[in-house]
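pls read this stuff:
=====
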Amino acid sequence: MAAALATCDMPTIIEGVRVARGWSQGDLARALTYSQSWVSRVVNGQQSLTVSQVHDLAQRLEIPLHLLRFGGTGRQEGHTRKAVNPTRRRDSSRAVAGSTLLATAPRPTGEHEEYHGVNETTAPALRSITGGQRRMDATSSARHLLPGAAAHVHLAEQMLGNARGTPFHTELSAAASEASGFAAWLNADLGDMGSARMHYRTAVVRARQAGMRLLDVYMLGSLAAFEIDVAEDPELGLGLVQEAEHVLGPSAHPTARAWLACISALAHAGTGDRVCAARAIRHAEREVASPDNAQPPWPWVFAFDEAKVAGYRALVGVRLRSPHEARAAFAEAVAPSPRNVKQSALLKVELASAHAEAGDVDEAFRLAQEALATGVRFGSERVVGRVRSFRRRYRGPGALCVEDLDNRLSSLVTGTPIRG
């Protein structure tokens, strides 16, 4: 343990604490409030850590930060626990030690020492980068965007650490929240549920540190939508929506209230509660009709209007297996921008479900095929997974279009090319 502290070898430190306290790895994960799979990767040297994560883990395990030394990267032979990749471990140790030294090194004395490394332009610059990455997401693979987004989260966290005690801490907390929220979105698109939750949790924490109520609600609502729509856990999502509603309060902007009401409707529909789902949609419709709803508040960018609510009403109809209501609502909803092809693919799967439920099998599977092609093209596990769920739910008669989709889904697993 002394050697691990001397080299900031967090995997060995974490495992040593676990053994000393007689914990299982599950106990350790709960104490750290991370997923067990993530903790396992850290312990085995397969997961690199950001500066903020090192600080967070040390704090949760009650390890005084002054005990973490950075005198080298080597490890004594007698302290090697497992045959993990030594090059990876050394590289990880160097990265953590070097970046932590930057974050904790004494700042130069002088009149403005508390502003070291940050100024009034830092937060807007970070938010501008996140905004650019979000715009690229519409037509780019999440796999290509994620490395840059993860590095951006690291940068935002480092700037936030430098901003402690300065007037810029609030804005940098908000910028870090937005960066983590986008990283969560990308991880969800790639099917990495544990990393998505971790980033969403960080986004909520940073929003609360910023003291920005609407941002807090936005990130909580985004996490709720993830649990409802991606993780398919509507009960958990509903609890998060209720927490967000409590934070929001009754006098908030109509856009925020309407958006949360629509997410609540999705959660209720997921549990099969038609009455509460319909009540939530009506609530959203009243809010968007308010004259105060003309200009959306940050962090909402686009207006949340009747057409947007119609889109959620369509999704509720699909989940409640009301195909005629769903198709009518889809007709009222605004079609997604042709530039946002991944979002269009997701909506095609939803519309395919409504057509299948109504007995229009050919149209349903045509839409599913188009969505699958988009998902494969952009490497979106979210889209491909949604098509797989559509196929599992279908219980109608067999047809050539059904067989064709089955073959294409099978080819994704076996790698066998499809003819024709």
About this structure: The two ends are 61 Å apart (CA to CA).
